[in-house]
Amino acid sequence: MTSYLPERFRKSPLVLTLGVAMIVVALVALPFVLSMAGTAWVRLTNFAILFVLLSLGLNIVVGFAGLLDLGYIAFFAVGAYVYALLASPHFGIHLPFWIILPIGAMVACLFGIMLGAPTLKLRGDYLAIVTLGFGEIIRIFMNNLSEPINLTNGPKGIATIDSIKLFTLDFGRTTRIGDFALNGQIKYYFFLLAVLVIVIIINLRLQNSRIGRAWEAIREDELAARSMGINTTNLKLLAFAMGASFGGIAGGVFASIQGFISPESFTLTESVMILAMVVLGGMGNVWGVVLGALLLSFVPEILRYTVEPAQHAIFGRQIIEADVLRMLLFGLAMVIMMLYRPAGLLPSAVRKRELARSTS
Amino acid sequence: MDVFLQQLINGLTLGCVYAVVALGYTMVYGIIQLINFAHGEVVMIGAMVAMSVILGLAGSGVPPLAIVLIAVLAAIPACMAVGYLVERVAYRPLRSAPRLAPLITAIGVSMILQHLALLIWGRNYIPFPQIIKTQSFALSNSETAATITNVQIAIMVLSVLMMAGLIALVYKTRIGIAMRAVSQRPDVAGLMGVSPNHVISFTFVVGAGLGAIAGVMIGSYYGIAHYQMGFLLGLKAFCAAVLGGIGNLGGAVLGGILIGLIEAFGAGYMGDLTNVCTLNKFLPGFSALCEANSNMAVFGSSYKDVFAFIVLILVLVFRPQGLLGERVSDRA
Is residue B311 classed as helix, strand or coil in its secondary structure? Predict the structure, then answer.
């Protein structure tokens, strides 16, 4: 682990231990502090972590392998629907989460391969447009697969999805230990945090592995990579499938937190949001992506609480809704980052070198 | 036969619109190998501007045909300005950057344009003012005869004129020669006294102008305008451009018309073909569903938006260069 940290921490074990300990304490205390301000904030944090998970998944595809996926939300949707179908009264199936999440990841992975296989042999732009279409198609199917057999319940969505149960701990209810109350959102927070830590470790390990280096080579120069003996098609497919599986897992957790899903949660807007998070933070850099996702999750919420009242105070009426402003912000973030800081807020060293504009 | 003829007319109308939008994609792609994701949004802005002008002039006593003409003439420069600005601000600085960069700005620009339109025109579906009364002409004397409306005729005639005009522009004029030169080798074209930047800007402006007219056409055909109308339209038009062979003008026209026809016939016949009772004749297991509801289809016309996309995947698998395109080497 130490090799991923800045030099000065690596040299001094004491500072490192203290630093890690402080971060751990802060992360553990965070939901309790937040819940003093209201459970809504814990919920918000949970969704922010969910977006971090999604961004890390997309980062494998866009950041590591350099493939633009504009329909990433489709894999999230697949994961969510798999969870919803296998743990809700819709079919009367109630499987435990540790069976469903891997199934969801596998199904999403399968979809990723199905989509990637015909397109990955071609140029990157085709992939972008095919994934864009794929996201839309998945939504059309979710909306219409209510007949002849009611699979997805159409636009009405699937409700009363089971919450995650760990042994006797039901994440849907508040647990009381003496005077100490642990509500569902806080439990989900710790669950998500655990998943996040695992995913971050996988990502960091992946980046410096043989596969990670191969992806990097493909991203920088596919032709050269191929002539060095890298099986570019298979490796691109692998990146695509891996990104999809992470999306599937995040989707499953989303379905269980939310307890209700409908096709409306999986639009192009969401795909673009996740892409903006990856781009803002720094494509290819795990910590950058985490930062980008957290920023773009929280800033819009802060805007919601400041911009709308401010407009009422200044103009007496609302001119720009916070939601619209958020999307404008996402679009602007992508354009401005690409123009002025293409490697992101926290650029990865390789990516920075590579995105530096050449005049040739 | 009447149903067939009707779907043929609907498909051709839709196909003409797709073809005009596809021309915008294919021109830009041909010259700088960039998918201009924002093109669908330019079409949407064209429809919106025209709609606003028509609404503004509707009660003023100006003859309807003149109002429509003014609306189109307002939409074209508006879209051209948007097209020019997008190229200048978002694409030109990234021309020598890695491929991923302009694709990301393109999707960013598309989001910005969509939500700016949302700010101006609101979130709701807006009925496109039918200022010229729609008239239907029956094609035969039977009661179920296929009909063609004046709007459909106008769309088809206008599209053909525009396509012819564009092809004349590209193959018969000096600027057309310059465009083709830049698309082959920008640097060498520069040495021959052509300014690649001007030519590229010009290409965007022409594409956006075509998009504006396409926006007015699709708005008056469907009778509604919406800030997200450009997204699916753009996607389908792109599929059309790929089907015909991206970068190829004739290909875009052919692809657009084919996609329009596939969609119309798909929407018209898919429901009957996959009806549970029809399937019951060939496959066992559908009898219970057939008895429950004989009108039910496995894939109804609500899947019509899927066809263009399936065509895209099939083309990419079996003939990536498209119907009329030349084989291009992978430049990753």
Answer: helix
Q: Helix (H, G, I), strand (E, B), or coil: what is residue B183?
A: helix
What ipTM does this complex have? 0.82
List pLDDT tens digits, range A101-123. 999 999 999 999 988 888 887 77
CATH architecture of B2-318: Orthogonal Bundle (1.10)
Structure tokens at B4: 């067939």
**CA dist list (Å): B224 to A325, B14, B78:** 25, 15, 20
Phi/psi of residue A176, each to 5°?
-115, 125
Q: Beta-carbon neighbour count of residue A48 at 10 Å? A: 18
Domain locations in chain B as residue ranges: 2-318
Cβ B108–A118 below 8 Å, yes or no? no
Buried b (16+ CB within 10 A) or exposed e, A27-43: eeebbeebbeeebebbb
**Residue pLDDT, tens place only, B219-262:** 988 888 999 899 889 989 999 998 998 888 899 999 999 999 99
Do A338 and B330 lie within an 8 Å CB cutoff? no
Token digits for A69?
């996926």
Whether B312 and A129 lie within 8 Å, measured CB to CB: yes
Please report the domains of chain A, with CATH numbers, ordered by start residue: 11-355 (1.10.3470)
Q: Which residues of chain B neighbour A148 with C-beta distances below 8 Å?
A: 276, 286, 289, 293, 296-298
d(CA B299, CA B100): 36
B118 at the A interface (CB within 8 A)? yes
What gap in Å lies between CA A69 and CA A28, rounded to an integer? 34
Cross-chain CB nearest to A335 (options B96, B108, B232): B108
Q: Which of A123, A134, A332 shows the shortest C-beta gap to B331?
A: A123
CB contact under 8 A, A130 and B94: no
Taking the CA of residue A349 and the nearest CA in chain B, the distance in Å comes to 16
Query: B186 in contact with A at a CB cutoff of 8 Å?
Result: no
Q: What is the pTM of this model?
A: 0.86
